[in-house]
Amino acid sequence: MKRLVLTFDDGPDPIYTRKILDILKDENIKASFFVVAKNALQYPELIERMKNEGHCIALHSLEHRHAFLCGYGYTKYDFSKSLELLHNMDCNIRYYRPPWGVRNIFTKIFVKKHNLQMVLWDVMVGDWKAGNTPEILANKIEKKIFDGAIICLHDGCEKYGGVKGSPFNTIDALKIAIPKLKEEGYNFVTVEEFLNHA
């Protein structure tokens, strides 16, 4: 059975994340959401829905700061405060993806200290950029994937440099790509399912 891991960074967002969750529910597939802890705190109902619908919730930092701009003290605070906020929402966090995939010399220390596993990606299609249509994004996804690929998309990138409204293209691209990928025999699994049954 061919597997794909669908992941979303930067949310939750009250508009985009909800629409993505609707699609995943309609398609009966599970995904992994790498959430920004301060956004999670703002929209606890979306975190609750993710849990109730069987998605994996993972960490994407406290407030999406670039690791190169953060020293030891802030990096330590970033991890501890994020995990505190998410644990208070009954999330058992086991996976971490740094903003932009960037790590500093302290990142590894705190990943290890908090018993997290760092998860990056295999496929990224620039869904936060201008000039993408849903068709272009769906086509990029279909061309780049392979059995076992971890796909990184975005459900809340506007705050962090993404083009305003760009997640709407991501949402419509999913409507095109998911049925096609299912037809091709791909099964969608969470990061947790993938890593535990590699």
UniProtKB/TrEMBL annotation:
A Pfam family that the UniProt record links to this protein: Polysacc_deac_1
GO molecular function term, any single one: hydrolase activity, acting on carbon-nitrogen (but not peptide) bonds
SUPFAM superfamilies listed in its UniProt record: Glycoside hydrolase/deacetylase (SSF88713)
This protein's name: Peptidoglycan/xylan/chitin deacetylase, PgdA/CDA1 family
Domain of life: Bacteria
Signal peptide: none
PANTHER family: 4-DEOXY-4-FORMAMIDO-L-ARABINOSE-PHOSPHOUNDECAPRENOL DEFORMYLASE ARND-RELATED, GLYCOSYL TRANSFERASE-RELATED
UniProt-listed GO biological process terms: carbohydrate metabolic process
Domain NodB homology: 2-189
